[in-house]
Amino acid sequence: MPPMINILNAFAFFANMFVLYGLALFLHINSEVLATFPTLITPASWAQFLWPLVVLVEFAWVILQLLPKYRSEELVTVVGRNFIFASIAQMAWSLCFSHQILSLAFLSIITMLVFLFIIFRAQSNVECNLQDYFFFKFPFTLLFGWMVIACIVDINVLLVAMGISTSTQFYAAIVSLSAILIVAGSVQDFTVLAVLAWAMIGIFVEIGNPGYYIQSIFPDTYVTSIHYVSLISFLILVAFIAWQGYSAWRNATKKPRVETTPVTTAEGDYVNMV
Known about the structure:
Elements: H1 4-22, H2 30-36, H3 51-64, H4 74-77, H5 82-98, H6 102-124, H7 130-161, H8 166-187, H9 190-208, H10 212-217, H11 220-253, E1 261-264, E2 270-273
Antiparallel strand pairs: 1-2
Helix pairs in contact: 1-3, 1-5, 3-7, 5-6, 6-7, 7-8, 7-9, 8-9, 8-11, 9-11
């Protein structure tokens, strides 16, 4: 029988899926709430197509961590109880966001992000091959990157709901895009960078064809500025991804250094011995 922590991980995942999808039949879905409070940095609706992949790889991790062959893997054990706490926080966020209790929803998603960051940092210290990365690290780096974007959008949704001025919303959007770049420069993980880039191009496309509400309350200069800033941010993220790929390739092809020991010959000359 799997250890209790592994069983609780599975229970937390399925409970989270029940809240996300089962109760969605009776609650407002996220897209409806986002449409109610449109922001300058809400990504295009097609950006949500990444979410099924997040759920799929998370499900795969939950199943694998139950199996005797993998439950003792360091990449699994370092997760600890943090996945359970992150799932509880996500359930709280789903309930609060769907009921438009946006301040509590924001606190919930911040809490979730903290636990995901703890997992991300713990797994970053574990060396692994490509297969282990895909099955045990990838689910959390993908989810962490997604939740960074969700958190950034949530704070802007909250500001819209609070009825703050359009100028404050504009500057908050600029700060939010800058925060995404700061996170990207700090984590230096290929998957996280790819998720952030995906969302950023979604923001660029959406603000390039704004809806009636955005056009009616924001000056054209604000909309155009966010359009260009999101494009520049996307290009910076692509540069980060390219550098990350180059660094990985360079490390993979780097030849190990051969240590040599100087030895004195009978004639007094020095030669290097491998």
